[in-house]
Each structure stands twice: as C-alpha cells, then as structure tokens.
Amino acid sequence: MNALRAGLLIALAAAAPAVAESGTVDREFHESFAVEPGDRLVLRHEDGDVRIVPWDRPELDVEVVYHAEYSEGGLGVSSERDFQVDFRRSGNEIRVTGRELGGGFRIGWNTLHVFEHVYTVRAPAWLALELRGDDGDVEIADWTGDTDIRLDDGDVTIERFDGTLAVALADGDLTLRDSALTESRLDLEDGDVELSGVEGGFRLLTEDGDVTAWALSPRGVYLQTADGDLDLEIGPTADVDLEVRTQDGHAELALATALSAGFEVTTDDGTVRLDTPAATDVREEHGQASGVLGSGAGRILVRTRDGRVTLRTAG
Predict the structure, then answer these.
(1) How far is Cα 227 from Cα 190, in angstroms, rounded to an integer?
(2) How far apart are CA 312 and CA 315, in angstroms?
(3) Long-range contacts of 80-87 (CB under 8 A, 24+ apart)
(4) What is the dihedral of CA 159, 47, 120, 90, to 10 degrees?
C-alpha cells in the first residue's frame, strides 16, 4: 500500500466514527391511469418480480410491494435505506420506475435482504408493454399487446400470448406456452428456452442455452444456437417453414407423420441420422441428407458445424 493511499484511509477513519445500523423498509405504492388503444407502459423494475394480469377495464392499475431488512457497520458515510416508485405520464406513454435508495461508502459490512419486491400490473390485454429489469422474474398470461422485455438474470414465463414479442435475456430462462407469435425476436445468452404449443413466425437466437419444443407449428421460424442443443417436436403444420442453424450443439427433430415438407440437412464435421420411413426421394451422402415428406409443401432446413443432427418420425 503506498503512502498516499494509507494516509487517505487514516484520514477517513479519523473523520468517520464507527457505527452500526439496521432497520426495515416496508413500502406499498398504488396508482391507476385511464388507457386507450395506442397507449404504452414503460416499466423499470430493477430486481423486482413482475406479474402482468389482464382485465376488461380501460384502466392501468399498478401495485408495488417492497419489504427488506438491512444492517451495516464500520467506518464511512451511509444514507438511510429506502425504496421509491415514480409514476409519470407523457402523452400515450406511462412510465413507472422503481428505485432502491441509500447505501454509500463504507469500510465494514453492508447487507440488504429483500423479502418481497413485486410489481402487479392489471390492464387491458391490448396495452403495449416495455419491461426493463435486472434479476427479477416476469410472468405474463393472455396478452395481445406488443411486448418488449429486457432482463439480466431474470426468468420470463409467458402463456397464451398472441402478437409481437421481443425478449432479450442474459442468464435467464424463457418459457413460452400456447402462443401465436408474429414477427417476434427472442435473444438469449446462457438461458434455456422451453416452447410448448407455439405457432407462427419468430427468430430465436441463443448462445449456450438449450432449446426444447413440443407441438411447435413453425411458419417462418429461424432458430440459431452456438453451444446449446435443440430438441424439437414439429406438429402437422400445413405450411411449415423452419430453418435451424447450430455450431457445436446437437439438433433432434421429431416430425409429425402428417407433416408435408421438403427437408435438407447439411453438417461440416458432425453426423446426420434419418429415421423417417415415409420420406421419399431420399438422398444421403457424407454430411448431407435430403428428402420429401408428404407432398413436400413446406420447408425444413438444418445446417450445423460440429453437431449431430437427427430427423425422425414422432411417436
């Protein structure tokens, strides 16, 4: 430690007495706004969990509950812990921002235990949503408004969504069930993706996470992974249009017996296995395979670098 740094620490210790503080923070906030088609909620929820609940009223209702306990001690300057939510409307945009306050410089200990941090949003299902958070989870059901979600470590669970969806997650997982997507984009880094009963068109990009899908009805779907594996069950979609690209991950596609599509599989250093007895015009050679299922009306394209690819008949 050099002399300047040592002198600074001595000066701080002399100027700031040793203290120990502890306490609780209990806060509840509630606000409502009249809304109409074209309005948008912009929610900044930091580490808080979010629950989006539809109702029939032309009204946005936001309830926030926060409960935490803190303790700190040692030398330094600290301000009292608190939590605040700001509500603001500007034209057709309603902004709700939650903020944890307090803390500061301290040589010693500083702990904060949050026991409840929840945003409950009730609004018409057509309201557009923009959600930005850190570690909090998001749950949405029965929604139709355009929705844009960006989180750090939080998980996202969506059920019965019908519309345009944008999701960007760092370490969080995505679960999407019984939904119809239009021109949607799903971007994940380390999180896993679980799709069940999803139809429509979307782009799904992942880094290290795995993708699992049941009863998928892809119509203009592009899936790309780096190191994650793909396990997809494709239903009897009349106009299937699916493109899959992987690097080191494996891909297994279980195809419904009534599916009609031409398929083409290409790999560099990986292997290809076909278990599709009903396929016609089958061609196989090293690292490549193609064929036709049913009338061949749709399209299935799989390209991988090092991964193993399996196409099989479901059942």
Answers:
(1) 10
(2) 9
(3) 80/23, 81/23, 81/25, 81/112, 82/25, 82/27, 83/25, 83/27, 84/27, 85/27, 85/29, 87/29, 87/31, 87/62
(4) -100
Q: Largest Cα–Cα distance in the chain? A: 85
> What are the CB-based long-range contacts (under 8 Å, 24+) for 215-223?
218/242
Write down the H helix ranges in the chain: 3-15
Q: Cα separation of 302 and 147, whole Å?
A: 29
pLDDT in tens, 16-27: 444 457 778 899
Tell me if the pTM is above 0.70: yes
Compute, in degrees rounded to 10, the torsion defined by CA atoms 196, 197, 202, 208: 10
Rounded to an integer, what distance in angstroms lies between the CA atom of residue 156 and that of residue 215?
A: 20
Q: Using the 8-state DSSP alphabet, how is residue 5 labeled?
A: H
CB environment 207-241: b (16+ within 10 A), e (fewer)? bbbbbbbbbbbbbbbbbbbbbbbbebbbbebeebb
Cβ(174)–Cβ(194) under 8 Å? Answer: yes
Q: Could you say which DSSP state residue 268 is in?
A: S
Cβ–Cβ < 8 Å for 45, 95: no
What single letter denotes the amino acid at residue 282? V
Contact 71, 111 (CB under 8 A): yes
124-163 pLDDT, tens digit each: 999 999 999 999 999 999 999 999 999 999 999 999 999 9
Q: Do 270 and 309 meet the contact criterion of CB atoms below 8 Å apart? A: yes
- Cβ atoms of residues 163 and 150 within 8 Å: no
HSE, CB side, 13 Å, CA atoms: give it for residue 100: 21
Per-residue b or e along 243-252, where b marks 16 or more CB atoms closer than 10 Å to that residue's CB: bbbbbbbbbe
